[in-house]
Each structure stands twice: as C-alpha cells, then as structure tokens.
Amino acid sequence: MTEAKDLSRRNFLRKASLVSGGALMTGSQLWANENIANTPPNVPSWMRKTGKTVGAAPYGVPSLHESDIVRKTVPWLTASPISSVSFSPLHALKGIITPSSLHFERHHSGVPDVSPDEHRLMIHGLCDNPLIFDMDDLARFPSVTEIRFIECPANGGMEWRGPQMEALQFTHGMLSCSEWTGVRLSTLLAEVGVKKTAKWILAEGADGAAMGRSIPIEKALDDVIVAYAQNGEMIRPEQGYPIRLVNPGWEGNTSVKWLRRIELGDKPWHLREETSKYTDVMPDGSARQFTWVQEANSVITSICPENPLKNKGFHEIEGVAWSGRGKIKHVDVSFDGGISWQPANLKGLVLDKALTRFGFNWNWDGSPKLIQSRAIDETGYVQPTLEQLRAVRGLNSIYHKNSIQTWQLSHTGEVKNAQRS
Amino acid sequence: MRKEARSVWFIFVLTAGLSCGISASEVLKFDIGQPASLVQIEGWDIDVRPDGLGLPVGSGKALSGEDLYEEKCASCHGSFGEGEGRWPKLAGGFGTLSDVRPEKTVGSYWPYVSTLWDYIHRAMPFLQPQSLTDDEVYSLTAYILFLNDLIDEDFVLTHKNLPTIVLPNQPHFVNDPRPDVHNTRCMVDCISADSNLAWDTANLDVTPKVTLKKMSDNNDSKTAMPSAQAVALSTYVQSCAVCHDAGLSGSPILGDKKAWGVRLELGITSLYEHAINGYLGTSGYMPAKGGNSSLSDPEVKAVVDYMVMMAR
After folding, report:
1. Which residue among A270, A340, B222, B301 is the one 20 to 30 A from A95 at the CA level?
2. Does B39 contact A at CB distance below 8 Å?
3. What does the radius of gyration of chain A's CA atoms come to, in whole angstroms?
4. Quick one: pLDDT at residue A34?
5. DSSP assignment of B83-150
6. Cβ neighbours of B34 in A, within 8 Å
7. Would you state the pLDDT for residue B302?
8. Residue A389's domain spans which residues?
C-alpha cells in the first residue's frame, strides 16, 4: 500500500510541478487536487490482477516510471558521437554506487565489440619475462574488490567562463563510482619481473583509438587494478569489457578501457592524450602536463536544477564528495553563498578515492538561498572557490575544475546554476 | 610450455609458503600466462617516443603527403589544416596560447613530432585506424609539419631525423604544481555580505532539452522502428554521420530534400554504385563505402536506402 501510494503521489508531484510552472503548493493543496483512482480509499488496479511472470525480464530493467533517468549527451560539445561523452544522472542517484548502466561514458573511437575468447593482455618492455594473459588466466589470480570513483578531468569544464549548463547531470555528470573486481596490477607486474630501469608504464586500449596513457611505476605498483568486473557482473562494453585499468583517484582516461597492452619503459611516451589533450593551458600560455590527480570536490544533488523544491519546511540536503588523494574528512554546507558554513554529516561508507555521501537536515523558510557544499579531504586540502581557481589558472585550462558549486534557490523553489558575477 | 616447465616450482613455492604460514596471495609468482614471443610483441608494440624509440625504418616527403592528406584527412581537418566544424585544427594558431581563445594546433601547441607520427599511425584515419603504411605515416606527418611552416615541401622525414625536429612550444610544458590553490575551512564571516550581491545564472539556452520517449512507447508496434531500419541507422551513425550530419566534403546532409533531390535524379542504382565504389563530383567527394571498407555491399545499400528515405 505504501509503495503504491508513494509511486502515484510521486508521479502526481511531477505533473503538478509542470502544471503550476514550479510555483509552490502546500501539501494539503496537493492532496485536495488529487484525483487518482488508485489512491486511498480505492484499491489500486494493480492489486486486482496478476503481474508479469517470473523471468519476464531475464536481465531486468528499471521501472518504466523511471525511464527518464538515463545517460544524456551534449550534442554540440563534440564533432562526432563516436568520440564523445555521456553524463551520469547524478540528480537521481542514491548512495555511492553508480548503476553500471548509468556510468558516464567517454570513448575516443567508439565502443569496440571485443571477444573475450580472443582478447589478450600483453605485458612487455623492461621486464624479465614478457607475458600474454588470456581472460581465464586473469581470473585465476587472487582477486581484489574495491569501491573507487572514476571522473573525467574535463568534468565541469564547460563552466570556467560562467554558468552554462542548467542541469547537475551536465555540470558534474562525468563522474561515477563502482565496485571494481580484478587483479592488482602489481601482482601481474611481479609475474613478469619488472627491471630496475623501468620507471613508467604505458597502458593501451584495444579500441580504434588504441587510447594510451603513461603512468609512473610507483602508481602502477600502488593501487591500480586490472578489473574484469563492475558492481558484481562482468564489466560493461562501455566501461572496457572484458578488462580495463582502474587507476584510483587519477584522471579518468588513465583507467584505460579494453586494456590490451602494458609496456614498461624508462621514460613517458607523450602520446596524444597526454600532450595535445589532457594538458592544462595557463594564462601565460604555458601548459601543465601530467596533471593526474582529481582534487577534492563535492556537489549537492538533492537540490539542483533537475530537483526543484516543491514545499517549504523540512528537506535533507544531500550530495556527494570525493577526492583523488584519499578519504573525505569533512563536508560543509552554506546557504548564503559562502559567507557562513555548517558541517554536514558523512553518511554510510567513507572510503578511499570513492564517492562519499553527505547530508544536512534543513528547514526551508521559502526565502531565496545560495546553496553550496565544500569538501575537505584527509590531506587537509579544502575545495576551492571558482574565484580562487581562476586567479591562478585563468579561463582556458579546461580540465580540473573542482570548485565549489552554487545552486541559486528562488522563492518559487526553482534552482539555477549560479556563479558570482 | 611455460606452464608445464614451472608447475613443479610453483607447487614447491606454494607448499613452502603454506608451511611458513604465508598465504597464497603473498607468493610472488603464480606461473600463469604464456611467454610473449618477439613476433607477438612486434605485432602489438606500436608506440613511439620523442627520442625515436619505436619508430620503424622509413621515410616520406612532405609534398608526397599532399594527395594522401586530401584523400584521407582533409574532409575533417580541412585542406590547410584549418579544421572542419568541430574537428581538430592541425595548423596555425602560433602565438595564441595566452589569448582569450587559444588555438591549440600541432604547430602552436604540441610538444613532440613523435606524438603526431604515433597518433596518425595508431588512430587515423578516424574510420580506418591502423590502415596506413609506415611510409604513408611519414609523408602525412611531414605534410602536417609543412602546413605549419615548420619544414619545406621538399623535406624528407625519416626515422633518423624525426626525433631531431623540435616543436616551438615544447619548452612551455611544465609538470603539475598542484595543489596550487589554497582555500581555508572558514566557518563564519568568510566573505563580506556586500561581495555576495551579484550572481550570474545559466541563461544561455545551450542545455540539451531531451524529451525522452517512455520505454513503453517502444513496445508500440506503430512507433517501433523496423529492425532493418535500425541496423541501417546504426551503420549511418558509425560510418556516415561524420560527414553527412554536417555536410563535410560537399556531402548532402541527411534529410536535406534539395541536396538529395538532385542526386536522386541519377537513379538509385547510381547512388548505390557511388556509395560502394566512391565518387568524385564537382561539389564533393564520396570515399568508397564512406571510408569503412569493412561494410558489405548490402549494408551500404541499406544505409543508402535509409538516407534516401530520410530525404523524402
């Protein structure tokens, strides 16, 4: 009964907000206007018949009522959908795990259809025993399972010059977090016997771009995983099936998908995706290279352009925080555009280089607010303001915009993406 | 072979490990995997470094890359490297890196020539990666350097001289200095209330407004796309949309009734023939099978049918 009521009420709320153009209605008004046959005291239609059989959806799909919660693209952003990006619907996600179907996508030459029977991982270069592993080989090694976020360093990159996207999905959606299972890369590197002269690895994918990145050996031997499973099942094609690198806390494309080759060398390779792209232009025209770490960041997800407020009164402000340098230590929230701050609660698991959910219990009095969140990680790093970032990096660095996000809540409950003029 | 040879050793290590109370995960080697032969490594080891390591023996003259560039590259990158639409600009842009809108090209931005050779070889042309010969890659690399006025048209680029060419922006790359921005965890009176009066909001109307069909709509036989058409659409997106969405190389844009009407006068058989074998007309250039030689003739015909249908 409760579930049925909630579903119909929720749909009604959506319709009501459309009809009223976002104008606020009180709870009693909502119920007075409601005229739905499946609500009390009526017996819902779905209780008067049998439902679909067991096995009707052997793989299962979300409720039809949730079909607008999907990855979305910004068509004007890239020249071709073959080399492009889709964004996760952060406004509709709960907890810290992104459903595999909703993990953001960034492909440089589309999604290859890789046969696991013929796919191989080759490790060679400055090592004693260059080896080739098939997928069965990798499954035989001791496995590790860890929850880690992956974020494209261009996340937020459309917002350097001013507020542009009117949706959380597009301001922050190149961010997802999964439980990854696979073999520690250090295990595989021990198997080939790394020579002392090896200082770097090259990780390369089996896509049409043969996308490759150079990674220092210290990181490769630290926490990197060659992953074959994501959230309990084999990795999705869009996420690198049958295997990908998971390079925790670093730029998303260093977690090379469809991983086919790792070479050990004494210098970096300076491939296209670490020279022409994924380098940050500074105001003086110089460019930062190998800007690997995704610094601490956070955003409020329960109030955002997609989630306007429909009632005064109690709301739990929720959001996610993350840091490529380790665990989240604190998250603070502000309702006055950063004049004053209050600590939020960290909820559930607080893990290394994973999304951390935070919450803050709040009563809205109906007045306009400028709502922000600010993450502090275990290194003491405090998420900066956009003004602070711009003062050092200007407007053209594209990548690594991890500044405090402002949502402007109007008296109607509407929410806009805002930046200080 | 390797597995058999090492299995006895592995059992010994494992046994020794267990007897000492060491878990299997602490055993350094597991004797899993096959040795990679030199031939196997050579086949896959495609990377090239700035010092020339990985460059195959070969050469190409800048001028001899011109025709190949026109055929394989210009439809996206422009005849002079100026870039069509949102495709990457390859030439020019010198001295713009500190401008309001920097132009980051091979000449103005890229630090190493090896990156250009490596990227053309591993990933270009966009629809036919790893289809060029080594000498073709040398020629194209040289031609793009020529478009940037970095070498003469007669210059012959080789595996020996490539690492010696220094690109102008190479000295201007620096390593990551972050954390470079230092905020503090202030809780009260962090900024003055006065500075908090003016705010800009997103009003550019550039956010995609997607009205998604409900999944249930797809079960409606009246609106469900026939599977053959769905396959043709998939082919279109993969192999045709790069040009036909934007009209690159003089191609008729999908759904442009006027542009397609002229071509339909030739008859569907001619359209099939041009699409399958390629066509050079007065207004544009159609590469055979759109540059995707893996498509079968029936697949090409199906996608032609789809594009014709969209123009009616």
Report:
1. A340
2. no
3. 23
4. 54
5. -STTSPP-S--TT-TTSSS----TTTT-S-HHHHHHHHHHH-STTSTT-S-HHHHHHHHHHHHHHTTS
6. 131-134, 137
7. 87
8. 297-418
Same domain, A263 and A351: no
Based on the number of CB atoms within 10 Å of its own CB, is A9 exposed (0-12), middle (13-18) or buried (19 or more)?
A: middle
Residue B22 confidence (pLDDT) above 80? no
Quick: pLDDT tens for B187-236. Answer: 999 998 887 778 898 888 889 875 433 333 444 444 445 577 778 887 88
**What band does B245 get if pLDDT is binned at 50, 70 and 90?**
confident
Are B46 and B53 in contact by the 8 Å Cβ rule? The answer is no
> What tens digit of pLDDT does each residue of A267-305 get?
999 999 999 999 999 999 999 999 999 999 999 999 999
Q: What are A397's two structure tokens?
A: 């660095």
Whether A322 and A187 map to the same domain: the answer is: no
B219 part of contact set with chain A, CB < 8 Å: no
Domain boundaries, chain B: 2-35, 59-172, 223-311
Fold for the domain defined by B59-172: Cytochrome Bc1 Complex; Chain D, domain 2 (1.10.760)
Nearest to B109 among A191, A265, A276 (CB): A276
Question: Which superfamily, per CATH, for B223-311?
Answer: Cytochrome c-like domain (1.10.760.10)
Say which residues have a Cβ less than 8 Å from residue A171's Cβ, sequence separation at least 6: A156, A158, A159, A165, A299, A405, A417
How many whole angstroms separate alpha carbon A65 and alpha carbon B280?
51
Q: How many domains does chain A have?
A: 3
Of A283, A292, A408, the CB nearest to B98: A283
Cα separation, B36 vs A371, whole angstroms: 56
Residue A341 belongs to domain with CATH number? 2.60.40.650
Restricting to B residues 249-308, those with a Cβ less than 8 Å away from any Cβ of A are: none
Nearest CA-CA distance, residue B163 and chain A, Å:
13
> Same domain, yes or no, for A245 and A344?
no
What pLDDT was estimated at residue B51?
Answer: 98
Q: Which of A84, A339, A376, A399 to mutate to test the interface with B (most CBs of B within 10 A)?
A: A339
**Cα–Cα dist B29/B32, whole Å:** 8
Kindly state whether B30 is in contact with chain A, defined as any CB-CB distance less than 8 angstroms.
yes
Cβ(A288)–Cβ(A282) below 8 Å: yes
Best interface-test mutation with A: which of B13, B22, B25, B44 has the largest number of A CBs within 10 A? B44
> What is the mean predicted confidence (pLDDT) over B49-61?
98
Q: How far apart are CA A106 and CA A175, in angstroms?
A: 11
H helix intervals, A55-99: none
Q: Which residues of B touch A72 (CB under 8 A)?
A: 208, 210
Across B281-310, average pLDDT: 82
Q: Which pLDDT belongs to residue B210? A: 58
